[in-house]
Amino acid sequence: MKVSPRPLAYERETLALRHAVPALGAGRAPQLRASNAEHLALLLTTVPGRPLRQAALSPAKEVRAHRQGGVLLARLHAAGDLSGPRRTEAEQALRAVADGAGPLLRQAGDRITSAEHGYVRGLTERLRVLPPLPLAFIHGAAGPRNLLWSRSTEQAAWIGFERARFAPAVRDFVPMSCGIWADRPDLRAACFQGYGRGLVPEERYALSALAALDAVGCLARGPALGDHEVTARGRRTLDRLMTGVFA
After folding, report:
1. How far is residue 179's CA from residue 193's CA, in Å, rounded to a whole number?
2. Beta 41-44 vs 2-3: how paired, if at all?
């Protein structure tokens, strides 16, 4: 039993589990057995495995997990009916991100320098004029806490679809790019190998801009929550971007 924290999360996860997640295959994601909109409750099947951040895998097994994770993301991205209002929402997603940059930068305040502020502003403003990017049904939180690995089946699986929606496909590669891939480019390569393609130049630019906003968000909320891990992630990502080593 899972109770969503808010109605939008319930709506997104319910849509995902009904219309897109089945494309991942048996044992590769939860199945929805029942739902109750009044109580924002979902009854899900269990999925074998543990989140990668808890699994203590060998480097070779981590590579396999990320490769399979990429395969599953490719299936998810191709699922769902991307038409009508859903396509419009996905096409406008990056503009909405750019619109939200100002308030987020103000929230971060003096935790970022004036040079960093200008850099992030410049990156995000260009999101408004990028050519059309590949659209997809995205997971929305594709990070190590939602990617499982089963030692018994030697298979990866995805959970946690409360942020799933139609959007540019590149958005699903932000969490890993700002996290574990910073130290493990082999995992990044494995994921994209499984995904079946790399990012086109416009997606690579969008990834940098989205990573910059992720960093600002971490620097805005991390200290307020007393979360040193989140704060450190934001600072490291922004430093990598400013020094040109973000990939």
Report:
1. 19
2. antiparallel
Q: Does residue 247 carry a pLDDT above 70? A: no
Confidence bin at 180 (pLDDT 50/70/90): very high
| Helix residue spans in the chain (DSSP H) | 7-19, 52-55, 59-77, 85-91, 93-99, 101-108, 114-125, 174-177, 185-195, 201-225, 228-242
Helix or strand or coil: residue 26? coil
How far is residue 184's CA from residue 196's CA, in Å, rounded to a whole number?
Answer: 19
d(CA 95, CA 91): 8
Structure tokens at 80: 């769902």
Strands 155-158 and 135-138: unpaired
- What φ, ψ does residue 166 adopt, rounded to 5°? -85, 130
Tokens of 181: 């891939």
Residue 63 has what pLDDT?
Answer: 97
pLDDT in tens, 13-70: 999 999 999 999 999 999 999 999 999 999 999 999 999 988 889 999 999 999 999 9
